[in-house]
Amino acid sequence: MTEILTTHAGSLPRSAELIAANAARPVGEDGLTPAPTDEFREVLRQAVVDVVARQREIGISIPNDGEYGHLMGSAVNYGSWWSYIFDRVSGLELTGDDHFSGEPVRSGPGDVRLTTFPDRRDWTIFAEAYQDPNSGVTVGSQPTFPVATGEIAYSDTGRELVAQDVTNVQAALGSAGYEQGFLNSLSPGSGSRIVDGHYGDVDAFLDAWVEVMRPEYEAIAAAGLTVQVDDPSIAENWDQINPEPSVEDYLAFTRKRVDAVNRALAGVPTEQTRFHLCWGSWHGPHTTDIEFRHLAPLLLEIDAKYYSFEAANVRHEHEWTVWEDLALPEDKVLVPGIVSHATNVVEHPELVAQRLERFARAVGPERVIGSTDCGLGGRIHPQIAWAKLSSLVEGAAIASSRL
Fold first, then answer.
1. Distance (Å, rounded) from C-alpha 225 to C-alpha 264?
2. Does residue 381 surpass a pLDDT of 80?
3. What is the main EC category here (predicted)?
4. How buried is residue 40: exposed, middle or buried, by Cβ count under 10 Å (0-12/13-18/19+)?
5. Which domain holds residue 387?
6. Residue 189 sits in a domain of what CATH number?
């Protein structure tokens, strides 16, 4: 029997104690959070031990720290996968100028530019639904993001924080009896989506983020862990371009971000790299998402062994058929989302098994690891999140027995 392994995209529900400890941390004069206190470090350390142990109890094959080292001061938070990096990078300040202010930006043929967040095409097409608090459409809270006001660099605080993440998860993995695990890290392309108030050139700013993220990737890999590069920008940027660009122009724009990932990963062994692609974790219609068939070949250009992507939500589930036509290199592994962060309905284990079997038939069961669409922490209720992971494990066992 070929066992189909299970994992998840990264973020898991935080404990009430950790959320309270995060919320209580002071904010510095620059609006960012300073290095943690010894008291906070102990709360975080124990929380990581507990979340890894719970993954073991459920039966998750490849765990992480739940992204607990990524600050989340409230139970609902869609953005900690991104905002955590702000405390680790010098040259950033809160100025009041962010993604939710300013005039909309317009693109043209051969000149692809990201517009402001409120000008996203999905948000404007369904403006009535997005503005109705009873519609069920949610985008999470809208915090103020920093602006790059000087040369950016991975800071000494960043090095301390990633070392803390590594130490915590290594100890927790050992305690729970795991031999492998991963840590999540931001992509250069996603980092470069914050407002640039210094470089004045999109490509130069992207290049700067390559240098910023490289030390974090290398620190994680040097510890023997797998680096998961989280990069919604590869797919999500499409919706933040007005008017809709040609696919050719968008792929040219995106290939620069793929190249940025590869340059930042140059010192990391390919077998220790996972890459996560998604269309944004907000709970909305997503009618303006770019089709996966346009992105899948580009995905394979990323120097990673494992490719994680959304495949369970109702906007993208049908796109598993891409892998019937696109040849997956023999040394690569698919990590498709099999349960979704976008619904409170807990997927039946039989549905989980059927979804896994589709991918197994397309590329071989030994090259499929069942996962989640996006992180579950901060997006759905903890009780539902853990039930989804349990269903994922149960369904993987069913699929394995049949394969």
1. 17
2. yes
3. transferase
4. middle
5. 5-402
6. 3.20.20.210
